Amino acid sequence: MSRVTYLPEAEEVADDRAAGPEGEDDAGLEDDLASWYDEEEGWSRDGTSRRAPKPLPRARRAAPPDDAQGVEGLAEPAADAESFHTTYQPSRHEKTWLFTSLRAFYELNLITDVLASVKGGKEASVYRCRANPATTDGATFVAAKVYRPRSLRSLRNDKIYKEGRPVLTGEGRAVKKSDSRILRALGKKTEFGQQVAHSSWLLYEYTTLRTLHAAGGAVPAPFGVSENAILMGYEGDEHAAAPTLSAVSLDPSEARSLFTVTLRNVELLLAHGFVHGDLSAYNILYWNGRITLIDFPQVVNCEGNPHARAILERDVTRVCDYFARQGVQTGPPARLARRLWEGAGLPQAAD
Ligand SMILES: Nc1ncnc2c1ncn2[C@@H]1O[C@H](COP(=O)(O)OP(=O)(O)O)[C@@H](O)[C@H]1O
Ligand SMILES: [Mg+2]
User: Among 233, 258, 290, which residue terminates a domain?
Assistant: First the structure.
């Protein structure tokens, strides 16, 4: 079932991670997770839940802002996929999938319409939605990144990224040793366990956006998360989404300053303990002379993952490759990566 969880502040997430096995148990969490997903029935091949949709539970951490209520002109959330009408015309299966993935955002009055498909990918599709400005900091549009149902995703080899990275629950906190049912399900890879692992993947994307956005990073504003979708700031206009840097040619002076901005964001991420893990000109958007870093589900934990240092070097190399083509003298990527790593106070790696 769709569920928007208003996540705790980044600091709280960090505290919870530190809590370890002795940390306080979160009463009711297991029930909440179980209500997301039916171990017996699960998702069908076309990505639709085989159960009839239940009304959404209310967000537990915080209610939607008061001014979200009673805003004129808001569409009534559709009751089922059949009555789900959007300006964008999805195919039949896509419609059911969009409805189950986005209905939480409708119910919380964050969006009022799905306007266009921005890009369909192997792991996720991104849609331009009409935002409710009252609940999205005045935005006209927002981007919904809807992950493909687990059964249909072409899983990238994600093991290397997940090493040393605790599984995140629906509330954005790390699974603890006391969450025995979840740990058992994860270990045995039951349907429920796989669903938790799937959600953890996109919760990392969402919590990273929150952390970086709060720290002033060049990332989309995060507006909501359900177990299958992320709602965030949209780069672009009513005609087209922002291109990725890979499709843009820059003049050398603009390239130099955007190279610096990119490295500053890599630094910011390192300062919060993470490496992007898939950074390149394909995951940086360019709009009105500004760049925005996107696509964070695979973020790597600097301290817990022995490959983090090497993954940073790969990210930096790809960024340097692009900017070198735009005329920037980047210097050797390996040296740059080392400076960034050590500048963040991280221990020198053996590799
Ligand atoms: N916030 C956004 N605003 C506008 N377009 C976006 C936004 N986020 C993603 N996109 C578009 O969707 C594409 C896919 O998003 P991304 O997060 O990179 O997912 P993936 O590469 O895993 O499919 C991007 O290359 C970009 O074209
Ligand atoms: Mg991408």
Answer: 233
